Amino acid sequence: xxxxxxxxxxxxxxxxxxxxxxxxxxxxxxxxxxxxxxxxxxxxxxxxxxxxxxxxxxxxxxxxxxxxxxxxxxxxxxxxxxxxxxxxxxxxxxxxxxxxxxxxxxxxxxxxxxxxxxxxxxxxxxxxxxxxxxxxxxxxxxxxxxxxxxxxxxxxxxxxxxxxxxxxxxxxxxxxxxxxxxxxxxxxxxxxxxxxxxxxxxxxxxxxxxxxxxxxxxxxxxxxxxxxxxxxxxxxxxxxxxxxxxxxxxxxxxxxxxxxxxxxxxxxxxxxxxxxxxxxxxxxxxxxxxxxxxxxxxxxxxxxxxxxxxxxxxxxxxxxxxxxxxxxxxxxxxxxxx
Length: 338
Prior knowledge:
Layout: H1 16-20, E1 26-28, H2 31-47, H3 64-77, E2 81-85, H4 94-108, E3 110-112, E4 122-124, E5 154-161, E6 165-166, E7 169-173, H5 174-184, H6 189-194, E8 220-223, E9 226-229, H7 233-242, H8 249-263, E10 269-271, E11 278-282, E12 286-290, E13 293-294, E14 304-311
Helix pairs in contact: 2-4
Domain TauD/TfdA-like: 48-309
Protein name: TauD/TfdA-like domain-containing protein
Cofactor: Fe(2+)
């Protein structure tokens, strides 16, 4: 296992300070592109199609395609994130919105299932669950999350309704954090290249030992000239407990240091979602999380996001170790076909 001790100079190695100095990462919908997307969604009614039972061929976007491709190119090959703003969600009923969002996802890549139930679009809202209970996913609560990446190439979050208070989206460049770690603790890189087991949090089958990934998943690896990251300190700690394999003091300090750097003003970028915002993140170059929040009393005003997990096969070369068991043994991560 070769450990390359070189800094990342790619545009994805940004700092929060740099991003706060500009709003180039906020992209507004062009009127003509939005109009075409709405017409494509209406045409589904004629075809008697609803998500997920339609593909890209049923959602033609001859003019908007170039715009959507440019957005995704910035996510996968540029800085690693975009906030797409201006979708008028208040105009649409729930099914229309989900169909529209699914159609966008079909043009952005291959949507994959997100849990053992095979959900193609996850509704991110507070289910009133205890965030401290084993197996409960933080996204199903209103508690503050910890920095992490999701097990797919790109995650898309569509804001339908923001919270009454809190619920800020926070992101940081895992590539920029790598540069800092390389300066502070070059000896610790071996542990991060080796990686950790992860708790599958209820998405496992009996084939997964202890309900965890069967092999350690690297945090950082270079592959074909690109540095990629998979990070979730919480699931790594939970896996260690379930497998009765205590993490070393040095490993715990490394995980905590990544979290601390992500939270710092230097690296963190905050986003206050508005209804209709779509945040797209490259999971190999960014980590994300959100602050805790308080909902409105009315059910229809509860914070609600729609999440898509998107893969783009063959686009980004990543070390094969990243795919060995991160969601193996589960029904998550499977391509959704029409």
